[in-house]
């Protein structure tokens, strides 16, 4: 439960949000996951005082927590040294390795296919929403007014791009924010190419568009990259091989938006 006054406009909701109708003692959904409130909606909801968030918050917590951990890894400056001792900052490869170890905990194997790592497209969106800055209100409004499905697809693709870029060693928060916005815009216009990015990022963009072609939530497999040509696909596949062999916690059940405890239905 959260007071209406604490819910911010133009911030993506990670789970379904409900209001309680006292006259019939029922909960009514007022916002779907990966959607946002506008100020006028929150003003109308003010009389109900509190909004209720789905228990699915427990499922997404590892993804939000991991995003916060990585944000600290990328953003925290070296601590001040009172003794003026020389203290080396971590090398880029050390930061990248630490990031990959955190990311590895977010992939999962399945009983049906233990030789691959999986993640549903919904969860990188939750991750990126916690890692990156909030998307600008005007961008959110323009996208949703164009088409709800296109808006959701842009969210999934841009988040997946950020998630994969971290696997490739891109550990600059400013760049990741720019990448998210650019991929969001490209998805809305269905234009993969553009100016300002390297050949590697353009290749990553092509992989993102090819792997997520619709707004429906689906399972993504590490094997998908094994079947693709290109330097970036091979690099991602190599990183995911390490995830499978060293970092995967096979005792954990894969997080899913489907099923009895999920928020969507097959």
Q: Could you walk me through the main structural features you see in this protein, from its secondary elements to its overall organization?
A:
The protein has 266 residues and is an alpha+beta fold. The longest helix has 20 residues. The mean pLDDT is 91. The two termini are 28 Å apart. The protein has ten helices and seven strands. 49% of the residues lie in helices and 12% in strands. The strands form two sheets. The protein has a four-stranded antiparallel beta sheet with strand order 1-4-2-3, with no helix packed on it. The chain is globular, with a radius of gyration of 20 Å. The protein has two domains: 53 residues, no CATH class; 189 residues, no CATH class.
Q: What is the domain tally? A: 2
Question: Helices and strands: which structural class?
Answer: alpha+beta
Over all CA atoms, what is the radius of gyration?
20 Å
Total strand segments: 7
Task: Report the sheet-strand fraction.
Answer: 5-15%
Q: Largest beta sheet, briefly? A: 4 strands, antiparallel
Summarize the structure.
This protein is an alpha+beta fold.
Q: Key terms for this structure?
A:
single chain, 266 residues, 2 domains, 4-stranded antiparallel beta sheet, 10 helices
Task: Break the fold down into its secondary structure elements and pairings.
Blueprint: E1 2-3, E2 17-21, E3 26-31, H1 39-45, E4 50-53, H2 57-75, H3 92-104, E5 108-110, E6 113-120, H4 122-131, H5 137-146, H6 148-167, H7 173-189, H8 199-211, E7 219-221, H9 223-226, H10 231-247
Antiparallel strand pairs: 1-4, 2-3, 2-4, 5-6, 6-7
């Amino acid at each position: 439960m959260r007071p209406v006054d604490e819910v911010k406009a133009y911030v993506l909701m990670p789970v379904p949000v409900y209001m309680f109708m006292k006259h019939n003692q029922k909960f009514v959904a007022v916002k779907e996951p990966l959607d946002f409130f506008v100020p006028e909606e929150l003003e109308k909801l003010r009389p109900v005082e509190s909004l209720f968030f789905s228990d699915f918050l427990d499922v997404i917590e590892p993804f939000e927590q991991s995003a916060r951990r990585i944000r600290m890894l990328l953003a925290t400056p070296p601590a001040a040294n009172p003794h003026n001792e020389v203290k080396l900052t971590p090398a880029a490869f050390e930061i990248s390795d630490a990031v990959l170890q955190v990311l590895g905990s977010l992939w999962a194997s399945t009983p049906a296919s233990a030789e691959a790592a999986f993640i549903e497209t919904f969860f990188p969106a939750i991750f990126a929403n916690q890692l990156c800055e909030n998307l600008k209100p005007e961008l959110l409004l323009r996208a949703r007014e164009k088409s709800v499905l296109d808006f959701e697809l842009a969210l999934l693709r841009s988040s997946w791009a950020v998630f994969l870029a971290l696997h490739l060693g891109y550990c600059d928060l400013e760049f990741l924010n720019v990448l998210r916005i650019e991929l969001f815009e490209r998805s809305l216009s269905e234009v993969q190419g553009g100016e300002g990015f390297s050949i590697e990022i353009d290749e990553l963009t092509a992989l993102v568009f090819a792997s997520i072609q619709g707004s429906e939530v689906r399972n993504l497999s590490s094997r998908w990259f094994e079947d693709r040509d290109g330097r970036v696909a091979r690099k991602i596949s190599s990183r995911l091989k390490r995830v499978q062999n060293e970092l995967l916690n096979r005792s954990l059940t894969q997080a899913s938006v489907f099923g009895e405890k999920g928020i969507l239905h097959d």
